[in-house]
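// run 5 | inverse folding | seed 20
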């Protein structure tokens, strides 16, 4: 019997039913133009039992999927809370806290390319170059800090001390086929450095 007819008759999710049939021990064959034919002796007498079995197993699969999705959401929320509450400092301690574990040096990086001025070095017709550079640097610094926190979280830490930044500016260029020089967009990179630690608040 065609699974399309069975799914329509019993109000089943046909793609899910077909997938279940393919993974079951039931005998079937694929139809040339889509669909599945169950090759079960006395299928009409077994149809109800097959549908009931599918519903039970399908509902169990849905329940497991919901539980996994809920667990993943909870884990994500816990991580976001931990990252948002993580303390960072350029110093080496926090008032009111004791460092109970040092987990080592960590870093976070980011980079951005910025188009060159279209007329001369600073004679841009593309807007305020200085403002564009500051905006770009601010964004990559934030991204580097976010990556730094991710690295600390991966080590099971809740704070970072001794944070500083290293900056790198590249002025890339390449030769053209005509023997000239092609100046590529500026590249700005930043690395946030620090030491991951675990801190506990004083009682």
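// decoded
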């Amino acid at each position: 019997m065609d699974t399309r007819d069975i799914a329509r008759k019993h109000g089943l999710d046909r793609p899910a039913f077909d997938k279940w049939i393919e993974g079951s021990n039931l005998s079937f064959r694929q139809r040339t133009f889509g669909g599945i034919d169950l090759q079960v002796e006395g299928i009409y007498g077994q149809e109800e039992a097959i549908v009931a079995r599918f519903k039970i197993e399908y509902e169990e699969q849905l329940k497991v999927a919901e539980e996994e999705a809920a667990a993943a959401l909870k884990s994500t929320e816990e991580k976001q809370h931990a990252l948002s509450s993580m303390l960072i400092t350029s110093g080496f301690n926090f008032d009111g806290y004791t460092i109970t574990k040092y987990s080592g040096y960590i870093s976070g990086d980011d980079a951005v390319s910025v188009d060159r001025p279209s007329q001369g070095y600073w004679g841009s017709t593309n807007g305020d170059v200085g403002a564009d550079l500051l905006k770009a640097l601010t964004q990559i610094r934030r991204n580097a800090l976010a990556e730094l926190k991710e690295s600390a979280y991966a080590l099971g830490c809740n704070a970072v001390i001794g944070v500083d930044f290293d900056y790198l500016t590249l002025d890339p260029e390449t030769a053209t086929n005509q023997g000239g020089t092609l100046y590529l967009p500026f590249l700005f990179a930043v690395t946030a450095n620090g030491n991951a630690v675990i801190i506990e608040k004083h009682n």
